[in-house]
Structures are given as C-alpha cells and as structure tokens.
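Deviation from plan, reported transparently: adenosine-5'-triphosphate complex.
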Amino acid sequence: PLVLGIETSCDETGIGIVRGRTLLSNTIASSMDEHARYGGVVPEVAARAHLEALEPAIEAALAESGVTLTDLDAVAVTSGPGLAGALMVGIGAAKALAVSLGKPLYAVNHLVGHIAADILDPDAPPLEYPTVALLVSGGHTSLLLVRDLTTDIELLGETMDDAAGEAFDKVARLLGLPYPGGPEIDRAAASGDPAAIRFPRGLSRASDLAQHRYDFSFSGLKTAVARWIEQRRAAGEEVPVADVAAAFREAVVDVLVTKALAACKDHGVPRLLLGGGVIANRRLRDIALERAEAAGVTVRIPPLSLCTDNGAMIAALASELVMSGRAPSTLEFGADSTLPVTEIQVAEAEEV
Ligand code: ATP
Ligand code: MG
Ligand code: FE
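Because the crystal trials were delayed, the predicted structure below was used instead.
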C-alpha cells in the first residue's frame, strides 16, 4: 500500500511516504531553532510552526516521491503521545486529508512508530519475532517485548523519572552546551576519557534489580553530575567538559545496554531492536553492537535519519497495519498526550 504519514508530536513536522516497506520520501521541517533560546520545546511555538510547515512539507514529500494525493491508499497520523496542541495540528490535517480524498485513516502510536522505522531499512532482513526493543528518546526510555509490531507489544520496564534524552539535554546545560544536548555531549565526549569519573548507574544494585530489573532512573545520575561540577567549581578548578561528557555518556549507555541484554537473556530472545532519537548516539550504538555480539544477540538499528522524529515511521507502521488486514481508524479520536506504548493503533473501526 501507498501510505502518507503525518508526524507532529513534538517540534518536528514530519511527512513520510512509503510503499509497503519501501521509503519513498521523508520530509522534515523542524522548529528546533525557535526553541533553542528557551532551552527546550515551547508547546505553543511548536503548534504554530506545525500549522505553517504542514502544507509545504506535504507538497515537498509528494514531489519527491513522484506520487499524487489520489494515488494514496491510506493516510496515517500520530495520535500520541506528545504535546497535545502539536498533535492536534497533525490530526486535524490528517482527518481533513482523509475525508476529502475518501481514503482510510490510521491513527497510530508515535513510540511504536519509532520501532517501526526499522522495517524501512533496505539492507536489513525481515524483522523476526519476538524481539526485545529498547526505545530511547527525548521523552521516553522503555524496554519492550515485541511479539508482533501490529498486535502485541509488552512493556517490560521504563524510566521512573527522566528519559535518557532528557538527561542528555539537562547535563548538556550543566556543562554550558547548547540545546539539544545529545549531539553536543556526543561531540564533547569524543575527546574525553569515559573512565575519568565513575558516575552512578541507576537502579542497578542487586536490591534495586529485584523490583526494577527492566526499569531505568536517570535523575540521580544528573544530580551526581551537577554535584561533581559544583565541587570542582567551588574548589576553583576548571571543569573538564570532555571527561564529564564522556563519563556521563558511559553511565547512560552502560545501564541501557546492560538492561536490554538482560531482557534478551531472561526471555530467551536473541534479538534486540533499537529505536528513538538517542540511538543517534555513537557510543550507544558501538557498545550495544559490541556487547550484543559477545552475548550472541543480533542488534537491529534503523537508519539514523529515521531514528529522530519523522513521518516515514508513522507511514511505515500504518503500512504494516494495512498489510496485516487491520481496519482503519474512525474519526472518533483526538490527541492523547500520554498514549501508552501498548496501544499501537487508536479508534480502530469495527470490522464491516
Ligand atoms: P518521544 O519520542 O519520547 O516523544 P522526542 O520525539 O522528543 O520524544 P526524539 O526526537 O526521538 O524524541 O529524540 C530526541 C532526543 O534525542 C533529544 O533528547 C536529543 O538530545 C536526543 N539525541 C539526539 N541525538 C543524540 C545523540 N547523538 N546522543 C544522545 N542523545 C541524542
Ligand atoms: Mg524532536
Ligand atoms: Fe519521538
């Protein structure tokens, strides 16, 4: 099926067009620059930017893929989770498009979309089930057991406080690096020594593991970094930015990979899929690949351009739903800013 996907859950206006599992176009307009001076995404600014960016983004995606609106078999849209106002802009546009074209509409979960990005990788063999999935983004850090992308996703664990991406953004700010912090920390860490400082690994003690084997916590780590920097400054010493960045990144990556591989082992699943914007982190990809190989686990990493928010992953998920014969969504849905990852599609119509 030929599917156009609309993604507006945060600060990226993403329009993607896929045919089956083939990516035809992936247009992204970001309002990141407008938020940078506030040190984070401002919801009203994001919503207005989506409103302005949507139409040109759709035009560009159609032009790039050489298809017209009437060629489409379905329209897909992110219904949540995300910023309510931002989501509503995309939902409104998707409903208008689907109704005016007389095409089925699929309202899907943004987080599952991050996982679905994987199936667009032209070089990867078909996805096998079950697979453990590690989802690390700006707002979420979750370990999932995916038995089927379109029907059965189990939440094994998630962060108890900050998301990993959020931790990167906050620590970047502590170090005086600009927003978004992930890429900045990655860059600064390149010349640092990850072993220079030992920062804590959240929820990793034996006593924590009993209750929170697959859960994460990054706020203690952030506080530890803040305190370490403070002490340095109080002593009149310079803060070694590269070393702090490298040691912090190592702590995050270590706990993410350790817990993901524990889930693989416990469930007897030799497959690990990575998804979400933080997967852009070099060290995370390297350590995951290295330790997984030693553990006999195959790692799948979507193309980097599909790891951060985009419309193609939304179209890809809807395409899977169409191919597995699922009914489209009714128009009876709105933005759900806290949609759980287990809800793959919302407002699915009764089979007719
Ligand atoms: P969610 O998907 O949970 O709603 P989101 O859509 O805002 O959140 P993504 O766009 O998937 O999140 O990812 C953005 C996050 O990824 C930001 O926190 C950013 O700092 C982080 N990030 C981007 N590149 C890197 C990197 N190289 N290393 C670490 N983090 C990174
Ligand atoms: Mg974003
Ligand atoms: Fe996202």
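The mean pLDDT is 96. We consider this an acceptable substitute for the interim report.
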